[in-house]
Amino acid sequence: MSYVLGCDVGGTFTDLLLINEKTGETFRGKTPSTPADQSIGVMKGITRICSDAGIKPTEISELMHGTTVATNAILEGKGANVGLIVTDGYRQVLQIGRSYVPGGLAGWLIWPKPTPLALLENTVEVKERMGARGDVVRKLEPDSVVAACKVLKKQKVQAVTVSLMNSFANGAHEKKIRKIVEKELPGVPVSLSHEVLPEMYEYERTLTAVANSYVRPTVSKYLGNLEKALKKKTGDCKYKVLRSDGGLMAFGNASDRPVSLMMSGPAGGVAGALWVAKQSGFKNLLTFDMGGTSTDVALIENGDPQLRRETRVGDVTVRSSSLDVRTVGAGGGSLARVPELTGALRVGPESAGADPGPACYGKGGTEPAVTDANVVLGHLPPSLIGGEMKLDVKASRAAIKKAVADPLKISIEAAAEGVIKIVNENMFGALRLVSIEQGYDPRDFSLIGFGGAGPLHANALGKLTGSWPVIIPPGPGVLCAYGDATTRVRNESSQTFVRRYSETNNKEVLKILNDLTKSAAQSLIKEGIPKKEHQIVWEVDLRYTGQGFSLTVPCKLNGFDKNGLAQAAKSFDASHTRMFTFALDAEHEIVNLRAIVMGDAPNVKAVKAGKGSASANAAVIDDKHTIWSDGKSHKAKIYDRSKLKAGNKIPGPAVVTEFDSTTVILADCQGVIDKVGCILITPKGWKGNKAKPKAKAKKKAASKSKAKK
Amino acid sequence: MAKSKTSAQIIQTNNKPFKKVKVDAITLDIVESALRNARYEMDATVFRTAMSPGIREQHDAFPLIADRNGKMVVGQFGSFISGFLEGYDGTIEEGDVFFTNDPYKVQGAVSHANDWLIVLPIFYTGRLVGWSCHFGHMTDNGGKVPGSMPTDATTIFEEGLVTPPTKLYKKGVLQETLLELMLNQVRLPTWNRSDLNAILAACRVAEKRVKEMCDRFGVDTYVSATQAALDRNLRAVGGLIQQAIGVEPVTFEDYIDDDGRGYGPYKIKCSMWREGKKVVLDWEGTDPQAVGSINFYLNENMLKMFWGVYMIMVFDPEILFNDGFYELVDVRIPQGTLLKPNFPAALSCRTHALGRIFDTFAALLGQKNPDFLAAAGFSSSPHFMYSGTDKRGEWYQLYQIGFGGIPARPHGDGPDGHSMWPSFTNVPQEYLEAYFPLRIEKHETVADTGGAGFYRGGNALRVDYGFLEDGEISIHDDRWLTYPWGVTGGEPGERSIKVMYRGGYDTGVVEYHLSKCDNVKVKAGDILAFITWGGGGVGNPLERPAETVALEIRRGLVTPDGALRYGVVANKAGKVDEAATKKLRKQMQAKRPKTTPVFDKGPDLKTIMANCEEETHLTAPRPPIFQPENELKQAAE
Q1: What is the ipTM of this complex?
Q2: Which residues in chain A are closer than 8 Å to B416, comparing Cβ atoms?
Q3: pTM of the full predicted structure?
Q4: Which of A260, A563, B253, B346 is the most exposed, having the fewest neighbouring CB atoms within 10 Å of its CB?
Q5: For B412, which residue in chain A has the nearest alpha carbon?
Q6: Distance between CA atoms of B250 and B237, rounded to whole angstroms?
Q7: Any chain B CB within 8 A of the CB of A631?
């Protein structure tokens, strides 16, 4: 037998999902994460899930892994001591950054400036200079590099980044420097900015290459150890890790380019949502992954998640592709409070964390968290199936009363509902960012809720966004692992090529795209994926000459030599109009060219849910429960999800519990179990999306502001 | 409506009055969050679609969304609508979009003609429910010099295009003749067109969002919620004023060094006190208006907003900011002064006064509360401009904003070479090199320029522009003469300086340039070192941990010589000589005054003037010659 194992290491739990490649049968596992060395938790989890499934570890043919090792190294400031080599005159490239101070007018009064990822005392200048078009203005003086290495040696750097001015246009000097560094500082890994990110903008490129160095020793050590331990256990097996952009790469490649793993975790959620939704027949999705301290949301149109050309973790924003996942600092653990001066209810970003946790955990927490509000409202029943702890309702009520209800002079239930409404609004804000603000109407999408707390809030968010049906996949708490197990290998190559349309032609661009394709395909071939399985996508980043930002548009190589650029311009104008309400009659300019090569998706079959009748009564475990919503109490039933069958209808208000999550169905909504076991929630009497007419203003504004030259 | 003072006539097709409804606290929070998101969306739209580096890369553009009476509910750098309504004489109808850049016609709502303002009334089912506005600084506005901010101008007529409040769209129809006429006056019509498009698109985004909110919550709830948001701010700021502002007047005065015409310094003076619930900001004692272009026609609501933001940031950054508190502030600016000049005084270089006003606020608010007192830092918003025709025969023109040392704050060092203006960023040096005939030889901060203190002031920024084509430059900066002051024992920061290396670093031909100048010819091969100011320090430098000073030597932010100002003796490698340090610190401490003065402004003005030439390589400015008072009065009439 052959099994695929998905494994997602989160902050609190390591989730595992074992899939029988032939039958699609799955086994779920959850084990506490081991932050000191994540591989310990992973190995424990593998042992356990194999014994649960009754298989030998050697039957696992492929392991797909989502990891937060890189993310945490940055968030916790525990990365490598990085040395940075820069062009003469640019030692403070990270110290100055873009000179930006967040917080608006007078924000400088309170902004705590973070320390650069490569310390200034570890940053050294070398004598050389490239011009903007890649011309050598000043030859590299090797002696200056040797001198720089001496400083870095004394500073005991563990990784080195070389980032020179205009290296995106010509990387020759960076390459020469690498040779010298490898000689002077043997064993220290070197990252070159023009290889990590061959794009213009010295600060962003430097930061990205430095971030790569910063997480590199941690990531390569972790993956190296894990691979060793795995080899012992599973024998001959392919090990792959999920990148921020949702593609998979072999452990070895990941160790060289760890900056691309910074959002590996959330990418697993998106990939999992995508896979489950596909089985249910949904292609347009808003993903809503709500955990304890934060919530990740993303938009998927027509089965393709949106890619963003940057990744943000904590204070650090690097130019590395990631799925366009927005994170808000609000989750089940976010604390509610009412500041005295304004009397306004605030939720988050402070979090109760795991210890003491929300008041209801009974571990000494007295400040109310979102979870407490859910307890007060009955959305979270006091004892959960498979839950090892009982929730302390009294403690939740007391906490909400003191911190929210009393200051606002309202009832405890109204206060709890207020907390939920505020936190939902914050998440709605994040969902708007990925949908409305990108020009998409959320009513064209379905909202898929997962993560520990997602199914509690998904129905309410569906009401705000109008994204029906709201989908709650089976095993919402381990969906990320599902994503890890069902994605495909992906690699991309890109090049900055700033040319106005009048300065280049179809042929020249086509040649570059072909070269990029070759270089992107190489790593797949190295991983044993034959050329015939490659699927290739090409992209061009365009803007109007003079603009600063570019938009990415897809293109096809077939026929590119005839009208490729014209076609790309057409798509660009359409995107620009959709996003900004106008297009310009200005010349187009190319910024970047890109080729993305993907392998086949793993062949994982979905499990069909057993068929049942319309009545879900067999799954009811409590019919005397009460929940609060819309300012009143409602009688509600509690259902055991494992007993629900395809076709079962669950009228709201209802609560559905399972071992890793709890789903709320509101009073004016209902749920239906579909063929693969998803709960599809819709308003009662719902007749399809787009029930509401579109806002009239939209079209008017778009047509009128079309500018002329 | 703001009907009492204005002759603007708002025409609604539906005159049903709004019903005042009670908005629960949670709905109010939701409306506020949604409006804030809409504002960020406005920013994003502009930064992504504008063309001039000043707006696109540096973000010299500011949005706001206001309630139906024109009070800003979200935004941060302007409350332009009251001024606009008072200055505009005509109808306002659904589909109209207004344009203006005339400070005198909108009571200073925009303060120089480079700022192009779009005002868009938002109608919902025939009734006015709000406004969205946005202004952006255009790289060029026509007039006598590239960049349109002539330092030698004496009237606004020399500063390019000046358009009173005018309909750019009439009932949804673009007034193309007007637009073409405007664009025909400027040197970079493509940029102006695109930037104007960008800020208009941003206003449209806000319009859309406001209408969606009216759909979602009901129009009465939306309108009532905006009022409630303003009321909430009024209460919060009211409480803050009672806590933080005393009835005893506090006074502060500071200077703009010169006017670019050889005269200066000019005094700005403000007194602040509380009368009952209200705060009075009285600018009596500020110098009369300048003959040149450094006047700052200051809109009173704008000033209230600046003051309010400062107050909130200093004392309680949790308060959500809007225009609600305006009735609590009484602004008194004498007519005919630098801050309320008479038409047609030149205004283009008002940025120095703007910077000095912020320094003044910090000083006024913190004077009696030293725990909240930051040092000085705004030199101004330094500008660098470079233009000419390149070898291919194409016109190039750069307008760039510089940065400097952020002052030390009450709770930490000032960042080196950062922006004090909201949301501003620098233009990447690689970008400059790719699109302009420039090579940026250095982009770094200058060691020891930040004022010494327990918390160090940020270091000055140094940008070395290597010119690759013959052309012309303009420089606008300040604080080259007076010092960015330190507080509570901290020392002042270093002053700004502009050095030109003719033909390169090695030729020995070095020129020192005025802080404010236009039409300076440069040749390919020349290099200009544009060095800004250092921020002042906070607290006694002798108490700064010696190890921190040593670390900063290793970081190149302080030199071993500079470390002596902290009483720290250390070598180039940043190793502290502990015995020598202890001894030196004791000696220096003994020389410090018994009671630490709140401000350290450096030497007095007389000494500064006497040493000017020797220290700055520039001639000291002559005392300003003001127009006689009767002449000013006549001009006002």
Answers
A1: 0.92
A2: 92, 95-96
A3: 0.85
A4: A563
A5: A112
A6: 19
A7: no
